[in-house]
């Protein structure tokens, strides 16, 4: 009994460490003195054979303890081509979520609860941003309380000279400002936006990671609603109100427009839109915040993407199909610099990494059966095998769920057409092409209905060119001019309705008629002569994309499983 007790003294300290219940300074200070004391007690009180046996057991215990103590000394593997900037303290890796805790159903489980979310890391991917980077860091440091702002991570994507040198030369000396915790990571070669974001995201230490373009200015209290939204749902990605940056003041432009919402097209691109819902189908990519643990659980970004573009589509689908959601924070305003003719907004970098088909990777990884109707060529499925592990872990749903979740946009807004047709002018027998009349038949332009009818909330209030993202828009002497569809039906220029009596009405008062030389023109509907301005659909066909959707919906039965699921 005495031998058991003296052996359990150091053994209990070791178990305390392994379990994580004792901090390292406690078990390090207690284990060795207690072990020596236990051995001395056994020598004094026991027989020689007994204490020699006890010594062998104790040596085994010490060996195990040494392994445990040395384990934290194994270096953390750095992100390829990323290193810590000069004079910056070491970077700590993100705590990984244990597999047993992460895989219990759709979206996995999060260890952190919403109430524990208090701090933000701002990640700035910067390639030759120079003065913009300094001013962006300064704005975030000055407009974020120090107890909220964990750090600003400047990911220098191959700038020459390195950005850290510019910060050292700048009079603000933000790199030495104790109220501005700025850390520098660097890629020696410019690899592109996704790699820079991934480097910063993996090394961020805040409860929330805000990925912000390196030419932005937050407004006062920008962080408040973002934190509130993530606390409400730690699987939530949050997009701030994106406003316009005045380059003269490096602040929000007076009377700025506000953007936040985008949708995914079938050519694997994104288009801006707006509606009454705060849920966002697709992020633009430049400004978004999310919980660090959720970022880690979903894998962050596709490591196979290089260059610019596509990561926003991938990240959006990771959210909606794998247990998360995306919302906007209307009161969190961040001004963003748009690329214009102003030389101060020009890019100064050239990506040197091997280019990749990022949109094709999105199609291959996420579209599933909808690949056959995608208008962007997918890469081979073998190229996106890196998605398999986290999709399995999080029990991600198929692409049809995303379409069904935003069915008002896709079905009522005409992004996914139910049918396509040619529109024939009755008197001439010619069909409406992009701008004028032409022959009907195979290979000619096909149209579809598009844009929500705001009076009914259903399809449709306009005409969309099938297989494109453009709708009939303004009208002049040369005819109709296509423009990016306003899928929610707010653009009055895109109001084209085929009435039951065959008239094609634009707006409230005008109708389209055949003109001279295959042109079309507008005429007040009240002035039409009998038989004038009549149109009809011909060669009406159910679209292939709708056939795929109907088939997948019948298989997955989202309408039965989620009868109360919002449609926008």
At the fold tier of CATH, the topology name of the largest domain is Spore Coat Polysaccharide Biosynthesis Protein SpsA, Chain A
- CATH class value of the largest domain: Alpha Beta
Helix/sheet category: alpha+beta
Instruction: Please bin the fraction of helical residues.
Output: 25-40%
Major β-sheet profile: 10 strands, mixed
Q: How many helices?
A: 16
The Cα radius of gyration reads 31 Å
Protein name: Glycosyltransferase 2-like domain-containing protein
Organism: Effrenium voratum
Domain Glycosyltransferase 2-like: 121-287
Keywords: Disulfide bond, Membrane, Signal, Transmembrane, Transmembrane helix
Can you put this structure into words, describing what you see?
With 568 residues, this protein is α+β, with helices and mostly antiparallel strands. It folds into 3 domains: 2-73; 82-87 and 116-340, Alpha-Beta Complex (Spore Coat Polysaccharide Biosynthesis Protein SpsA, Chain A), CATH 3.90.550; 419-545, Trefoil (Trefoil (Acidic Fibroblast Growth Factor, subunit A)). It is built from 16 helices and 24 strands. The protein has helices at residues 2-19, 24-45, 48-70, 99-102, 131-142, 163-169, 193-203, 224-232, 292-297, 311-321, 358-366, 388-393, 399-405, 407-412, 544-556, 558-561; strands at 82-84, 120-126, 149-157, 182-187, 208-212, 216-218, 236-246, 251-252, 261-264, 270-273, 287-291, 325-336, 419-425, 431-432, 437-438, 447-453, 458-465, 470-476, 479-484, 496-498, 504-506, 510-514, 520-524, 535-542. Strands 1, 2, 3, 4, 5, 6, 7, 8, 11 and 12 form a 10-stranded mixed sheet that branches. β21 (504-506) and β22 (510-514) form a beta hairpin. The radius of gyration is 31 Å and the shape is globular.
């Amino acid at each position: 009994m005495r031998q058991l007790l003296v052996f359990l003294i150091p053994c209990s300290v070791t178990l305390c460490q392994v379990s994580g219940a004792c901090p390292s300074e406690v078990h390090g200070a207690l284990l060795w003195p207690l072990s020596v004391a236990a051995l001395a007690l056994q020598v004094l009180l026991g027989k020689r054979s007994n204490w020699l046996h006890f010594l062998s057991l104790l040596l085994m215990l010490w060996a195990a303890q040494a392994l445990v103590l040395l384990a934290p000394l194994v270096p953390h593997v750095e992100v390829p081509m990323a290193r810590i900037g000069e004079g910056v303290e070491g970077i700590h890796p993100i705590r990984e979520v244990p597999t047993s805790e992460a895989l219990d159903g759709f979206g996995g489980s999060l260890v952190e609860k919403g109430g524990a979310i208090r701090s933000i890391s701002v990640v700035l991917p910067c390639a030759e941003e120079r003065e913009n980077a300094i001013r962006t860091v300064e704005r975030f440091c000055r407009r974020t309380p120090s107890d909220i702002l964990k750090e600003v991570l400047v990911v220098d994507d191959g700038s020459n000279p390195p950005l850290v040198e510019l910060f050292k030369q700048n009079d603000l000396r933000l790199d030495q400002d104790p109220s501005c915790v700025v850390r520098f990571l660097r890629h020696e070669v410019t690899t592109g936006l996704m790699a820079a974001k991934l480097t910063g995201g993996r090394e961020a230490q805040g409860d929330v990671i805000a990925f912000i373009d390196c030419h932005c200015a937050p407004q006062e209290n920008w962080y408040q609603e973002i934190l509130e939204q993530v606390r409400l749902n730690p699987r939530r990605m949050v997009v701030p109100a994106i406003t316009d940056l005045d380059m003269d003041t490096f602040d929000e432009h007076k009377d700025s427009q506000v953007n936040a919402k985008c949708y995914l097209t079938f050519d694997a691109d994104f288009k801006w839109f707006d509606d009454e819902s705060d849920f966002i189908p697709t992020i633009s990519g430049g400004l978004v915040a999310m919980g660090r643990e959720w970022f880690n659980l979903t894998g962050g970004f596709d490591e196979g993407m290089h260059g610019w573009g596509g990561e926003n589509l991938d990240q959006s689908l990771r959210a909606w199909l794998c247990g998360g959601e995306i919302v906007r924070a209307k009161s969190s305003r961040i001004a963003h610099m748009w690329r214009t003719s102003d030389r101060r907004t020009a890019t100064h970098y050239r990506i040197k990494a091997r280019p990749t088909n990022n949109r094709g990777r999105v199609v291959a990884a996420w579209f599933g059966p909808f690949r056959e109707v995608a208008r962007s060529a997918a890469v081979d499925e073998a190229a996106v095998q890196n998605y398999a592990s986290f999709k399995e872990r999080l029990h991600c749903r198929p692409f049809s769920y995303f379409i069904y979740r935003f069915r008002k946009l896709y079905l009522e807004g005409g992004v996914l057409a139910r049918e396509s047709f040619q529109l024939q002018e009755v008197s001439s027998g010619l069909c409406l092409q992009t701008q004028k009349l032409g022959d009907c038949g195979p290979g000619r332009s096909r149209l579809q209905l598009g844009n929500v009818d705001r009076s009914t909330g259903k399809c449709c209030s306009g005409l969309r060119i099938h297989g494109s993202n453009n709708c009939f828009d303004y009208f002049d002497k040369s005819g109709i001019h296509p423009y990016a569809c306003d899928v929610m039906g707010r653009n009055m220029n895109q109001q084209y309705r085929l009435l039951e009596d065959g008239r094609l009405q634009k707006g409230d008062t005008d109708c389209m008629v055949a003109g001279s030389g295959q042109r079309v023109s507008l005429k007040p509907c009240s002035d039409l002569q009998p038989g004038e301005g009549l149109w009809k659909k011909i060669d009406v066909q159910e679209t292939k994309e709708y056939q795929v959707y109907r088939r997948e919906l019948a298989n997955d039965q989202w309408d039965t499983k989620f009868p109360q699921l919002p449609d926008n």
